[in-house]
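task queued by scheduler; priority normal; single chain, no ligands, no partner chains; default sampling; output format set to structure tokens
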Amino acid sequence: MTQPQNSHIARNLIAVAMIASAVGTRPAYAIPAFAAQTGEPCSACHIGFPQLTPYGREFKLEGYVAGGMFPDYKNFALMSEIGFTHVQNKVPGGLAPNYPSNNAWSVQQTSLFYGGALYAPIGLGAFIQATYNGVGHSFSWDNTDIRLARLTSLFHKPLFYGFTFNNNPGVTDLWNTPPAWGYPFLPDALGGGPPAGVQLASLGGQVMGLGGYGALNISLSDLLYAEANVYQSLPNNLGHTLGAGYNPISGAIPYGRVAWQHSWASNSFELGAIGLQDHPIPSGISHQQSDTKTDIGLDSQFQLISGTHAFSLQAAYVHEWQHLPASVALGQASNMNNTLDTITLTASYLYRQKYGITETFSDLMGSADANLYGLENGGDSVNGKPNTSSFTTELDYYPWNNGGPKFFPWANAKFFVEGIVFPTYHGASSNYDGNGSSANGHDLIFTGIWLAF
């Protein structure tokens, strides 16, 4: 396939439209492989990490090939997340198997990445991650996005389109609002959280799929993005080989995404919608009865980026309809129909690409279901509700965001301190389990380093 004659003009128009908000001057994660390939510091693609700048969104949209041609040793990178967890109240039995009841260090995960061009002349590139879970002591494939990106025109407007093989609905997204790339960017593996999650946030690594996307610059300031993927659950043997286990889902899993972005001066604003439907099999045995879960979400993102200041706002809402005949038959749910709603609001500020602060409110609300969330099947919500809310304050320091040490200029690091407060936990603010436990007993401090090299 050859580029159309107007490809260079179209490419310039897209670059102007998508980089307009980066005057003055990623996750994919902020991996050193991308910095090494492009020759740019991590701050070119990211507000801290992993939040993408307009340049970072363009790099991803174009298939991770900018600055590269073929695979190179520089396209490989390592990442490690090391943290210390302190919880308000001790956790009987330990924060996790083989961990103390409080005040524990953990190497949460260590990942090997390939990031960048596979064959740039046709726009073929990849972001591939394999991870060792230091808490669960297991290896698995992680976020993977292999894409072929092309440039053409539609109605005399530049259009980037492409095809993707990936393993997580939303991992292909350009904005940090879907669950795959949304906050928490660095969750505490030893801290508590909601007893449930919507399917959009639960399928990463358990599925594989193919899809296509397109990004049309309807003007120099306005970008229209659409994506459609179809997934299936990993076959039994493959799932175990890749470390994801076997979580059967009946039939195909359709996923769709639309978004509009407007850019002006140093700003950009995005508004979008997202949707997915699947049929999980709660028995864990293929070809048996399944449930139906349908997720519909709305999201928005605002960014202001200058040479000194970077500010972003993200808002995401997902509503899930659940039809649970298989779970009811197995005694895993009481209600034939439930709902689940998640809301995440995040504001972050980064000064001189070194000093950052993030504030986040997260809320999960759902139908009361004694068998699904209550004490009957090992849950701990005495009223059978999953409702859990939290406020998080995160302070960050990035010593190498504008270039690493001389011996390894592509290295990056994030020193962080997170404080999380739970107003409600598993259905109530106090005595949520009938044994006098309160939500604030799960308040925690999580601190450590996120190192990429």
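post-processing summary
- Residues 226 and 258 are 4 Å apart (CA to CA).
- The longest strand covers residues 138-154.
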